[in-house]
């Protein structure tokens, strides 16, 4: 990893996770596959524009390129070089474009590997409405939720074997002999591990997030009626954690009705739970009742794209993978391969992930500058194809032109 720039310095993090950010931090970036290079170029223009606008020459980001995905394979022969993992740890804060994962076979997800290896256990995906965005909802402005998705276990742990493999046959035999469980012939087998400690640290982060921001509720989203000992346990562990560690700051929804006459006591957030299928319809019909959602990995993946669609689509859906030490910011969407290299897709999601990065390092003036300018750009109906096709009277611009339009609107 090269380092350059006279004042460039590393961000450091203490044992309680507090960052110390120099005026000219080195921040890692992975360009990504598919449309990644297009949206990264656009994002960089916007973030640099905002830092300059907010701080003049007093602050500056020194970007450190880290290789992953197709570019890494081409340049190093590896999909995810060790140097990249060490680079993210060294930088403490990094941002990435999307990386391709083949369906069915081939390499396992590099995105998931990054989260697991670096223990970035909370996938945080805020979903909010920017005025003027097209939406299939009557009241998209009522959607304002933050998804906290467990990022390291569940069916994403990658413990699975193909139908007919020696391992799948041995597991089927073991299940039959030990537990009398019959699997249909030629069954593929996957394992869904969900642990108490990993559930607790995710829910703890979600509750703290709600408390820090004065948000009214945290909802545990699970499929515990069917998967009783995994998703059902997520619910139980989540409630237990909230009442044990945040006893005087939280109240469960059932207590609200049973002992508080339907009104939560002042200063307490309500912890509630919803079964995942019901949560999708609640998000459409009663979104204003939900603020922070804490959920296992698979539910969180599905929910993030669905919620994004409610406020304008995957083009404006940011995210962060956060651990106790490092944070890696990335859009909710993938590589959108059919648009690769066309300078066409919406860089909004990665730009807003950059806003989350700026907030994470405490550069709130620059973060606000981007958000204001982005809002103005959308309000002026200067948008990429995805929004233009849903808007009356929009001016469709390319990905790079959108970035310049945002910078022009900075104050
Ligand atoms: N974190 C990551 O790096 C992720 C990686 N992936 C990977 O990405 C690859 C492609 O996945 P796929 O299922 O096609 O999902 P994608 O999210 O890449 O794309 C699906 C559709 O969403 C819309 N879309 C996505 N990004 C944008 C954008 N920036 N601006 C506007 N519209 C956008 C496009 O819709 P339309 O066709 O209507 O224009 C696109 O065809 C897979 O290999 C997958 O594994 C997927 C998710 C996350
Ligand atoms: O890793 C991938 O390719 C897909 C991951 C994904 O969809 C997500 O994290 O939202
Ligand atoms: Mg996804």
Low-confidence stretches: none
Strand content: 15-25%
Overall, the morphology is: globular
Can you tell me the number of structural domains? 3
CATH superfamily of the largest domain, called what? Isopropylmalate Dehydrogenase
Radius of gyration: 22 Å
CA distance, first residue to last residue: 34 Å
Structural class: alpha/beta
Output the strand order for the largest sheet.
Answer: 4-3-5-15-14-6-7-13-10-12-11
Mean pLDDT over all positions: 97
Helical content band: 40-55%
Number of helices: 14
- Quote the CATH topology of the largest domain: Isopropylmalate Dehydrogenase
Let me know the number of strands: 17
Which CATH top level class of the largest domain fits?
Alpha Beta
- Ligands (ions, cofactors included): NADPH dihydro-nicotinamide-adenine-dinucleotide phosphate, 2-oxoglutaric acid, magnesium ion
Describe the biggest sheet?
11 strands, mixed
Which CATH-level-2 architecture of the largest domain?
A: 3-Layer(aba) Sandwich
Comma- or semicolon-separated keywords:
Isopropylmalate Dehydrogenase; binds magnesium ion; globular; eleven-stranded mixed β-sheet; alpha/beta; binds 2-oxoglutaric acid; 41% helix; 3 domains; binds NADPH dihydro-nicotinamide-adenine-dinucleotide phosphate; 17 strands; two-stranded antiparallel sheet; 14 helices; 411 residues
What does this molecule look like?
By secondary structure, the chain is an alpha/beta fold. It folds into three domains: 1-125 and 317-411, Isopropylmalate Dehydrogenase (3-Layer(aba) Sandwich); 136-151 and 194-310, Isopropylmalate Dehydrogenase (3-Layer(aba) Sandwich); 154-192, no CATH class. It is built from 14 helices and 17 strands. The protein has helices at residues 36-55, 69-76, 82-91, 110-117, 166-179, 196-213, 231-245, 253-259, 276-285, 297-310, 348-360, 364-379, 385-388, 399-408, and strands spanning 12-13, 19-20, 26-30, 62-65, 93-96, 122-128, 144-150, 160-161, 189-190, 217-222, 250-252, 269-275, 292-295, 320-322, 327-330, 382-383, 395-396. The strands form four sheets. The protein has an eleven-stranded mixed sheet, with helices on both faces. The chain has a two-stranded antiparallel ribbon with strand order 1-2. Helix 1 (36-55) crosses helix 12, helix 6 (196-213) crosses helix 7 and helix 12 (364-379) crosses helix 14. The model has no long low-confidence stretch (mean pLDDT 97). NADPH dihydro-nicotinamide-adenine-dinucleotide phosphate binds at residues 39, 98-101, 111, 313-315, 330, 333-337, 345-346, 349, 386.
């Amino acid at each position: 990893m090269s380092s350059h720039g006279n004042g460039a310095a590393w961000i450091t993090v203490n044992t309680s996770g507090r960052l110390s950010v120099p005026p000219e931090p080195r921040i890692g970036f992975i360009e990504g596959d598919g449309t990644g290079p297009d949206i990264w170029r656009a994002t960089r223009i916007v973030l640099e524009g905002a830092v300059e606008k907010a701080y003049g020459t007093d602050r500056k980001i020194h970007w450190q390129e880290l290789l992953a995905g197709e570019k890494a394979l081409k340049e190093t022969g590896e999909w995810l070089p060790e140097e990249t993992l060490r680079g993210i740890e060294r930088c403490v804060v990094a941002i990435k474009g999307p990386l391709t994962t083949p369906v069915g076979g081939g390499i396992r997800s590099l995105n998931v590997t990054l989260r697991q290896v670096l223990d970035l256990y909370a996938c945080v995906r805020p979903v909010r409405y920017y005025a003027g965005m097209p939406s299939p909802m009557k009241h998209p402005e009522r959607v304002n939720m933050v998804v906290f998705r467990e990022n390291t276990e569940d069916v994403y742990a990658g413990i699975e074997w193909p139908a007919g493999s020696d391992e799948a046959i041995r597991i089927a035999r073991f299940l039959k002999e030990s537990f009398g469980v019959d699997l249909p012939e030629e069954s593929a087998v996957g394992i869904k591990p969900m642990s108490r400690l990993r559930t607790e640290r995710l829910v703890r982060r979600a509750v703290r997030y709600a408390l820090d921001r004065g948000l009214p509720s945290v909802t545990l989203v699970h499929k515990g009626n069917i998967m009783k000992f995994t998703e059902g346990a997520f619910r139980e562990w989540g409630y237990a954690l909230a009442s044990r560690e945040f006893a005087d700051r939280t109240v469960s929804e059932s207590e609200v009705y049973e002992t508080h006459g339907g009104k939560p006591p002042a200063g307490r957030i309500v912890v509630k739970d919803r079964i995942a299928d019901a949560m999708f319809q609640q998000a459409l019909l009663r979104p204003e009742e939900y603020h922070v959602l804490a959920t296992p990995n698979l539910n969180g993946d599905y929910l993030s794209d669905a919620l994004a669609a409610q406020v304008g689509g995957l083009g404006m859906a940011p995210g962060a993978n956060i651990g106790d030490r490092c944070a890696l910011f990335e859009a909710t969407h993938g590589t959108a391969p059919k648009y690769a290299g066309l300078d066409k897709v919406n860089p909004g999601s990665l730009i807003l992930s950059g806003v989350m990065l700026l907030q994470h390092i405490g550069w709130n003036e620059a973060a606000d500058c981007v958000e204001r300018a982005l809002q103005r750009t959308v309000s002026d109906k200067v948008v990429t194809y995805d929004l233009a096709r849903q808007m009356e009277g929009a001016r469709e611009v390319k990905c790079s032109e959108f970035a310049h339009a945002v910078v022009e609107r900075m104050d």
